[in-house]
Amino acid sequence: MNSINKTVSVNGRTYNWPQKPLVVVCIDGSEPDYIEQAIAGGHMPYLASALENGADLRAHCVVPSFTNPNNLSIVTGQPPAVHGISGNFFLDPESGDEVMMNDPKFLRADTIFKAFHDAGAKVCIVTAKDKLRRLLGHGLDFSSGRAVSFSSEKADETTMAENGIDNAQAMVGRDIPSVYSAELSEFIFDAGVKLMESMHPDLMYLSTTDYIQHKHAPGTPVANEFYAMMDGYFAKLDALGATLALTADHGMNAKHDDDGKPDVIYLQEVLDGMLDPGDARVILPITDPYVVHHGALGSFATIYLNDEIDPDAVADALRTIDGIATVYPREIGCRMFGLPEDRLGDLIVVSDKSKVLGTSADRHDLSQLKEPLRSHGGVSEQTVPLIVTKPIDELPGGRQLRNFDIFDVALNHVS
Ligand SMILES: [Zn+2]
User: How far is the CA of 66 from the centre of ligand 1 (A)?
Assistant: First the structure.
């Protein structure tokens, strides 16, 4: 069969074989305003001209609007109810421990990359942080010579067996940047261009970090500089023959009061005042080892209650608190947001746009927060860009695009 006519099916969806190399970029924390203001200010000349004929759409991300659930949705084409990764962090019902969900054993679906790779495609994945790399590259056969997957964080430790490339840092020719820097993301794009030149992959996925977006609002000089940096690499990838498709894992909003202090509802403290000690346990799925830029404060929490506590009564009490947007019982919340019921607590809580949810004040180290808090996690950060640099045919009317439709749009609807 001619490869151009080939299709690949995975997780109940079918994708056309890429006619040109497809580069999907997940710009972490890219509230739509960032690109809009960077283009308006003349900082993204390549993208501005590509969008004269390309598609500049908006989509909804997965709630909780966090990094890992959304990256896995983008690369599986399905919500967390299917792929299983509902947060950075969850309460393992088997052990009762709060654990990181970055081990592939928690993944319940194959990625689009694996399906294409199994069908003969060349695939490259470059992420900022190593926590995502193992999930995104899961199932690829690195001995094939057709798969490369590494993080800029650990590009100096790559091996053929684990990453499909020995010493990726030497290929990129840059120092390993700090995990808290814009350069961590620039490293990814530089790697992407070099892999496009040397390997000419069918599919490439580049996933950045939201370090800049957590600290700098859309249209500010540092934000514009970051988007200008990306624009230069987008132009290079385009010049190498690639189609680019851009989206985000989630948006980003200011979450502080007028004095610049984080605007926090400490849920564990609220519940401990309402119930007996140990009756309620608050889990914040934003929690990860990299807390410097958000202090583990986001707009989404889940609550585990002891069996004798009535979830509906607790939900009613929480709904009266100023700044709490919604409280759902597990079953309804999981249906609303497409989440796996066995990985969420009895209640799902989402805060308002300007508020974040914490456990208790003594469990959040906010001393590292140097700028007024910007964060995500709620429904208020659900709208993200969905951009393709080539013209697309008309999508069915009334369709609410999701960020995890990006492979469908870019592979099946580019005209
Ligand atoms: Zn993110």
Answer: 5
HSE-up of residue 23 (Cα within 13 Å, Cβ side):
27
Compute, in angstroms, the gap from residue 29 CA to the centroid of ligand 1.
5
Q: Ligand 1 mean position to 60 CA, how many Å?
A: 14
- The region of weakest confidence among 307-321, 344-358, 362-376 is 362-376
Percent of the chain with pLDDT over 70: 97
For residue 379, give both structure tokens: 């429904």
> What's the 208 CA to ligand 1 centre distance in angstroms?
8
> Minimal CA–CA distance to 353: which of 333, 329, 334, 378?
378
Q: Check: pTM over 0.70? Answer yes or no.
A: yes
Model confidence over 110-148: pLDDT tens digits? 999 999 999 999 999 999 989 899 999 999 999 999 999
Q: How far is the CA of 1 from the centre of ligand 1 (A)?
A: 39
For the chain, residues classed under CATH 3.30.1360.110 are: 264-375
Q: How far apart are CA 207 and CA 151, in angstroms?
A: 9
CA of 157 to the centre of ligand 1 (A): 24
Dist. CA 69 → ligand 1 center (Å): 9
Given 3.40.50.1820, 3.30.470.20, 3.40.605.10, 3.40.720.10, which CATH number is that of 3-252+379-412? 3.40.720.10
Q: How far is the CA of 390 from the centre of ligand 1 (A)?
A: 26
Identity of residue 7: T
Tell me, which fold does domain 264-375 have in CATH?
Gyrase A; domain 2 (3.30.1360)
Whether the CB-CB separation of 333 and 341 falls below 8 Å is answered with: no
